Amino acid sequence: MTSVLLAGGGTAGHVNPLLAVADAWRGDEPDVAITVLGTAEGLEARLVPARGYELLTIPRVPFPRRPDVSALRFPSRFRDAVRRTRAILREHAVDVVVGFGGYAAAPAYVAARAERIPFVVHEANARPGIANRLGGWLGGVVATTFPGTPLRRATVVGMPLRAEIANLDRRAERPRALAALGLDAERPVLLVTGGSTGATRLNETVSASIVLLLGAGWQVVHITGTGRGGTDPGLDGYHVMEYCDEMHLALAAADLVVCRSGAATVTELAAVGLASVLVPYPVGNGEQKLNATELREAGAALLVDDAEFTPEWVAETLIPLLTGRAEIARMTAAAATVARPDAARAVVTLAREAAARTA
Q1: Strand partners, 105
Q2: Kind and range of the H or E element at 80?
Q3: 46, 11 in Cβ contact below 8 A?
Q4: For 189, phi and psi rounded to 5 degrees?
Q5: Distance CA 113, CA 140 (A)
Q6: Most buried of the four, 90, 227, 233, 349, by CB within 10 Å?
Q7: What is the pLDDT of residues 136-188, one digit of tens each?
Q8: In this structure, are residues 120 and 6 in contact, taking their beta carbons and an 8 Å threshold?
Q9: What do you get for the CA distance between the two ends of the chain, in Å?
Q10: What is the per-residue pLDDT across 247-306, written as a single tens digit (0 to 9) for each?
Q11: Cβ-contact 125, 133 below 8 angstroms
Q12: What angle (nearest 5°) sits at the alpha carbon of residue 129, between those of residues 242 and 53?
């Protein structure tokens, strides 16, 4: 029986691919022993046990970014996290570690190296984070979501996605999705989402432009998040919700998506074959703009800077796109050309091969 430690967490971008790999591995090898390493503060504390996997936690130790008191404390705190992780690896007789970035990943890579246990690094973004850069430098087997991610000896596998997205047949599921969301089967659907927390720029611009969007003959599903701006004037065809529990249904119903370009989002668009307008989040290290590159270069997406996504841009660029359906059909076909639906199993294969080389 294989014993696996999956390490990562903090955000959905780390936890969801981890869970997708866990599910894929268990589906192929029902008796595999899967343990997840995370922190008590991240989303993994809720999502991992809910999916039926054992979660073990270590202290959250962020890499210091400025010379302050926390930087002085970092070496001893990081050594403690590594020490705890090494104990977990021994106690569970772990055969292979797979890390996904986040606070738990760096101690897991260092501990695996110290215990001479093979490990795999999966990088979700086009621009890698500190933990995964460390994992690659320490000699882990590196898997990336996007071509061109600057990690040495990387294999491009794509983003591990949950089964309801990876296996979604939009054509077959569309009638049920339209009924579930209360949509008109005779009108095309524009889906607007800023991700799980919403996006103020998207919300304000779309709510300010809703009369134009509806006037183009479309209906709009707008997932706003909580407290992120925008207003609902109560117009027919404008469906506003703070959160969507069944995002695969929203994707099945949509003909075009306006959204951020997080790594999971852009890979889901490719996996299900959807045309999009991508508005990268302007804060951070610029990874969202890089994440959008593959879809944009394939002709599957329009890219617009956050500051430029205004009601004027909607009137001048988005409305002509909505009224010219042939271009959206071409973009939709292009999206499927960059899909990598088997990413979760590809990561499992890399991990098994790494374990077999040291068995």
Answers
A1: none
A2: helix 69-91
A3: no
A4: -120, 125
A5: 9
A6: 349
A7: 999 999 999 999 999 999 999 999 998 899 999 999 999 999 999 999 999 99
A8: no
A9: 13
A10: 999 999 999 999 999 999 999 999 999 999 999 998 877 899 999 999 999 999 999 999
A11: no
A12: 60
